[in-house]
Amino acid sequence: MKKLILAIALFTSIGASAQTEKVTYKPLMQQFVPTDLSTYRPVLKSTLDRSYKIDPTVGYTIQETKPGSKIYVLTDGVWQSAAIVTTTGVVLLDAPESYGMNIEKMVKQVTDKPITTLIYTHSHNDHISGSRYLKNIKNLEIIAAKPVASYLKEKNDQKRLVPTNSFSGKLTLKKGDKTIELQELALFHSNESDVAVYLPKEKFLMVVDLLTPGYVPFKNLDLSNNMHGYLKAFDKVLAYDFDVFLAGHLTALGNKEDVVVAKAYATDLYSIVKKLYQNTDMMKVMGEAAGTIGWENKFLLFNVYLDKIIKEGTDEVVAKWGDKLGGVDVWAPSHVSTMLNYVKWDD
Ligand SMILES: [Zn+2]
């Protein structure tokens, strides 16, 4: 009996795998799962040359962004936050999860002043879940945009401390000798609000998860749900007078040129995708595929059409930007896909 069951099982599984092998079409986004990691382009030398030097035995660093500014970047080489040392105390900008337990220790390396204030740029876990390690700081003031404060209050998840103060639109803070301007920008990244933090005297600007200095933006254009807002955000950022730009991620401190380059990348991506969208005959592409598989599987036929644009767009983006920004070949398929969603459904 056991042998019979085994024989049936074997027969069924052989049958199933033979059936699977008949399927030759593989969705493009799955083809980009890295099977051969050595085929990816190495990080550009120009990007490596400007990277923070971090002692690997420590794993993080705190460095002044500009001599005498008393604005420090805290980073572990992947996330970035800031500490502003004022005459009356320290104002933190974000508290990333990855090095949250070390933030107080890092700040003590540069000042004896107490941490009095924490400002959230947006609600995402990776940038503010480290706040839970600051819960024992007495009378800690936590400031966020109103929609972020409401969201975190509703979530009440213990990882992200709930804001004590909130604002709409703009808020100017006077903290000791520092003036800090907060502004809700176009919704370009998170679902609730994305806030710019600006210190006019020091020409320091922090806008998180819009771009990555030296690299293309993260997957799906920094996980943006709003490409209209994303494309608009660059001009809003460039309207500020700044020379130091803190982007929230990866290996380097940014500057105005990084924002200009990222805007050029996003604008070029838009043009490439728009052109391919206008020049690709959807019914012709689907009709050719239907010649092989028939018209029943509508989702598959539509995906063949989308994948054709994603493939051609990716090739063009990588050819144009591969030697200018890091990670183009890693994220271009997702960038083209996100931009195509916008161009087709929202533009
Ligand atoms: Zn984010």
UniProtKB/TrEMBL annotation:
<dbReference type="InterPro" id="IPR001279">
    <property type="entry name" value="Metallo-B-lactamas"/>
</dbReference>
<keyword id="KW-0732">Signal</keyword>
<dbReference type="GO" id="GO:0016787">
    <property type="term" value="F:hydrolase activity"/>
</dbReference>
<keyword id="KW-0378">Hydrolase</keyword>
<dbReference type="InterPro" id="IPR036866">
    <property type="entry name" value="RibonucZ/Hydroxyglut_hydro"/>
</dbReference>
<dbReference type="InterPro" id="IPR050855">
    <property type="entry name" value="NDM-1-like"/>
</dbReference>
<dbReference type="Pfam" id="PF00753">
    <property type="entry name" value="Lactamase_B"/>
</dbReference>
<feature type="domain" description="Metallo-beta-lactamase">
    <location>
        <begin position="80"/>
        <end position="249"/>
    </location>
</feature>
<feature type="signal peptide">
    <location>
        <begin position="1"/>
        <end position="18"/>
    </location>
</feature>
<protein>
    <submittedName>
        <fullName>Glyoxylase-like metal-dependent hydrolase (Beta-lactamase superfamily II)</fullName>
    </submittedName>
</protein>
